[in-house]
Amino acid sequence: MPATLLARNALVLVTMDGERREIPGGGLYAENGRIVAVGRDAELPQGADTVIDLSGHVVLPGLVNTHHHMVQSLTRAVPAAQDGELFTWLRTLYPLWAGLTPAMVETSTLTAMAELILSGCTTTSDHLYIYPNGCRLDDSIRAARQIGMRFHAARGSMSVGESKGGLPPDRVVEDEGFVMRDAERLIGAYHDPARFSMLRIVLAPCSPFTVSRDLMRETARLARSHDLTLHTHLAENDSDVLFSHQTLGMSPTDYVRELDWVGPDVWHAHCVKLDEPGISLFARTGTGIAHCPCSNMRLGSGIAPVHRFRAEGIRVGLGVDGSASNDGGHLLGEARQAMLLQRVANGPDAMSARGALEMATLGGARVLRRDDIGALAPDMAADFVAFDMSALPYAGALHDPVAALLFCQPQQVALSVINGEVVVRDGRLLTIDVAATVARHNAMAAELARQAGA
Ligand SMILES: [Zn+2]
Fold first, then answer.
1. 346-361 residue pLDDT tens
2. What percent of the chain stands above pLDDT 70?
3. Local structure of residue 276 (DSSP, 8 states)
4. Residue 328: CB atoms within 10 Å
5. Taking residues 296-315, what's their average pLDDT?
6. CA 129–ligand 1 middle distance (angstroms)
7. Ligand 1 center–CA 232 separation, angstroms
8. Which of 177, 239, 380, 408 has its CA 20 to 30 Å from the CA of residue 199?
C-alpha cells in the first residue's frame, strides 16, 4: 500500500503548471511522495493516510534555492566584514573559515537548512568550497538527511592560493589531485540521478580567482562523464572582472567559453557584470544563472541584468548566497528583493510578483536541471508549502493573496511537505530541535571568532 497524502481547501493553490493555473479552493493528492492529482476538492480522492486542511492558506510549489554557502551562517555580521566589497570581505573571512571543523559544517548546514525550509524552500543547493581540519561534503549531506531536505550538494574547491596569484591564503587551498579523487568518491557514494532524487552531487570549483584552468577543465570532464551539473561564481563585481582581465588575460565570458564551462549542465552564480557577448553566449548555450539580490546589494556588487537574462530566455533561479553576505536565508524574502531590485534598475513593471515567484520555483528547478520539482501537477514531487494568510502582515492585502506573499513582509511557512513528508506543521519544524541547534551553532560561531581573534 502506498503512503497517501491529501491536502485540500487552500485559499489559493498556485500550480506553476503549463497554464500557470491558480486554483481557489484547490488541493492535491499524493502517493509515496509523488503527486497524483491536483484540483478542487470534488476532483480529488476524499481520504488518505494524512489529510491536511489548508483553508485560509496560500499553497505554493516548494521554492528552490540555487546558491548558498551554509557554513557562512557561523560568520554573519562579523564586525570587520560588514562594509567591504567582495575581495576585502573574502580576505577578512578566510581566516575564520580556516577554523571550521566537521561538526561545525554539520551544525551550520542544519541551521541554514532550517532557515530555508521555514522560508518556503524545499530544495537547495549548497556550494561548500573550503575543507580545513578534515571537513568533508559528507558533513553537509548528513545534515540534509537529518532535516529531510532535497539537496544538491556541490563539491567546491580552491586550489590557487596567494603564493600562486590566487586570493585565498595558501593554508585553505587543496591539492588538485585530491579534489578530483574526492569528487569521484562522492559521486560513487551519494549521487542519485533518478527522478524524485533527494540527493545529487554537483561539481563546483569556487571561482576563476581561486582555481586553475586545469582544475576547471578536469572538473568539467569528470562531471560530463557522469552526467552531473557544474557550478561556479562568475562576473560577480568589478574587481572580479578586473582580476579576470589582469590575471587570466580575458573577460569572464571568454574564460568560460574557452573552458567550455557553458551549456545546459552549467549554472553560474551572480553574473552581475556579465557583458553583452556573455548574455548572448548564455542564451545560445542554455547556460543557467543563480541570481542573489541580497548578497549583491550587501556587498555593493551591483544590479544583475535579470530583466535582460529573462528576455533572452536564459534559465534564471534565485539564490540566497552564503549567509555571511546576506546575512540570512529567507528564500521568499529573496524573491521579494529580486522583484524590488529589478524595479530600481528598470522601472515598476520590470518584474511582477508572479514573475519573481516563477523564478523562485520553476526557474530554480530549471537551473538545477530538474523536471520533477517547481510545479504542482501530476507526476511531480510532492514538495509544497503553505502560508497562513490570517497573519498580521497580510492584513488588507487579500485582494490578491498570491501577490501579497511578495509585496508584504515575508513570513515563515505554516506547513512544508518535502517528498511527501510533513516537515513543518503549524509553523514548527518537526525534524530537528531548532533551539538546541541554534545554541550549538552560536557556541561554534563564538569559538571560530575566538580562534581567529576576530
Ligand atoms: Zn557565492
1. 999 999 999 999 999 9
2. 100
3. H
4. 17
5. 97
6. 10
7. 8
8. 177
